[in-house]
Amino acid sequence: MLSLMINGRATNVAADAATPLLWVLREQVGLTGTKYGCGIAQCGACTVHIDGAATRSCSVSLDAVEPGQKIVTIEGLSPESSHPVQKAWLAMDVPQCGYCQSGMIMAAAALLKETPEPSDADIDTAMTNICRCGTYQRVRAAIHLAVTIGKDRI
Amino acid sequence: MENQLVASRRSLIGGAAAALGGLTLGFHIPQRAAQAQGATPIPPEINAWVVIKPDDTVVIRIARSEIGQGALTSLAQLVAEELECDWSKVKTEYPTPGQNLARDRVWREYVTGGSRGIRFSQEYVRQGGAAAREMLRSAAAKEWGVPAGDIVARSSLLTHAASGRSATYGKMADAAATMEPPRSVQLKDPRDWRVIGQSLPRLDTAPRINGGQVYGIDVKLPDMLNAAIKACPVFGGTLASFDAVKARAMPGVHQAFQVGNNAVAVVADSW
């Protein structure tokens, strides 16, 4: 039995040490917002934050998570979808099928923490999540909108 | 090639059944079960396409599958236009294919593909909305003792100008549900459209930005098992042999076995 800090709560999990964090979150903890897309860290659908850094959870084994590291999933990003990225995503109807969007939003939120006013080039470099529906133009526009929304709150 | 894959899936299920002593084919989606057990009585539908609640919420039934292409919102727009309801009050629900069969396919086709959802549905869903509108007007006409033709239905409100009477759709919904459906309906001229053709905010975005949207992979059924298949990576290749001793010994693994002549499947408690 291991204790992980997930979305601000200490959560006990019991799984094989080699189990990817993605599956611990989805199956042991029941947080299915984080998605499986490829299992080889290529698509980003599994993106969570570990100590604030965007991390592809399909490729982090349970035993690689250090005690006390803060894990945040899409469910814990904000109360009531209030993060500026989520507000911008809603305002611009970014998601189509939505399957990649949990990872996309987590990646965007991490980007804005690193680079509060990213340029298009910054977005191109940082946002490598794959979207089969092709929402990329709206993702970019919504990141810019999220910057504005974030500023108005300060 | 495609036939081979289909045969492989079938034999996977057959093989698993043989190994585990039968499959449970009963199926329910947890969300629907929760709704079905809810204590609040469901208001009667005006017709198969429209339910209006006392608080004026308009529930529009959608038969086609929304998979990101926007059909859910668009089909609701088609119904809402003719229904003349307040768009801000619209919610949607999916009757199940089973319910459709039980009601002699009242919602017609469910198949969704080839850009057919709007093209093939648009006329009859608009007629469904128009029919519900006419039943609301008939209900008001009956209650007020005036000709239905003198009643204006607009934005979820029924008004009779001459007498100044009005009622919200929510107040007339129960009575409307008892009205005879019209034999035919006149659909609106596209020049008069206020909702159709507008680029409105989607009705289904909210759960897609917070992990709330449920996808097939997220569904968990009682005693559900998961299966994964590894096929020969070479086209036309066959399975020479496999050693499942280690796999079978892993916690949660139920079975590992050959599928067809070119693949191995593992069945386990979890992904």
Task: Please sum up the structure shown.
By secondary structure, chain A is α+β, with helices and mostly antiparallel strands. In chain A, 36% of the residues lie in helices and 14% in strands. Chain A has a five-stranded mixed sheet with strand order 2-1-5-3-4, with helices on both faces.
Compile the SSE list and pairings.
The complex is a heterodimer of chains A (about 150) and B (about 270).
Chain A: E1 2-6, E2 9-13, H1 21-28, E3 47-50, E4 53-56, E5 70-72, H2 84-91, H3 101-114, H4 120-126, H5 136-153
Parallel strand pairs in A: 1-5
Antiparallel strand pairs in A: 1-2, 3-4, 3-5
Helix pairs in contact in A: 2-5
Chain B: H1 2-20, H2 30-36, E1 45-47, E2 50-52, E3 58-61, H3 71-83, E4 90-93, H4 97-102, H5 116-144, E5 151-154, E6 157-160, E7 165-168, H6 169-178, E8 226-231, H7 245-249, E9 253-259, E10 263-268
Parallel strand pairs in B: 3-4
Antiparallel strand pairs in B: 1-2, 2-3, 5-6, 6-7, 8-10, 9-10
Helix pairs in contact in B: 3-5, 5-6
Would you tell me the structural class of the helices and strands of chain A?
alpha+beta
Give the overall shape of chain B, derived from the CA principal axes: elongated
Helix-residue proportion of chain B = 25-40%
Which consecutive residue ranges of chain A, at least 5 long each, have pLDDT under 50? none
**Count of helical stretches of chain B:** 7
The tally of beta strands of chain B, per DSSP, is: 10
Question: What is the helix fraction of residues of chain A, given as a range?
Answer: 25-40%
Number of DSSP helical runs of chain A: 5
Give the H and E element order of chain B: HHEEEHEHHEEEHEHEE
Intertermini distance of chain B = 26 Å
Strand content of chain B: 15-25%
